[in-house]
Design brief:
Helices cover 0% and strands 24% of the residues. The chain is mainly β.
């Protein structure tokens, strides 16, 4: 049986189906902030994590360098980190 959990900043989740929302969603965030959500796997056999972006729009990358030098979402794992910015709604 599947059930969903909704998490926001400063949460830790360990569930197959979790929706992470920004504080006050769907309203925009009008101040600088850091938001951390720790996602733990539910079983040692899990080897991948899929993230589906339903609504995800933050500052665009630098037009010259393509680097996320303003708003950025950082995804870390034990081997590397990934940075995302810009319009990612509907992506996975």
């Amino acid at each position: 049986m599947w059930f969903s959990v909704t998490a926001s900043c400063d949460n830790e989740v360990q569930n197959n189906l979790t929706y992470v929302t920004s504080p006050g969603f769907p309203n925009l965030i009008d101040r600088p902030m850091n938001c951390t959500v720790v996602v733990r796997k539910i079983d040692t056999e899990v080897s991948q994590l899929r993230i589906d972006f339903v609504h995800f729009n933050i500052g665009q990358p630098n037009a010259v360098t393509g680097i996320c030098d303003g708003d950025v979402m950082v995804i870390n794992n034990s081997r590397r980190s990934f940075e995302l910015c810009g319009w990612n709604s509907g992506q996975h």
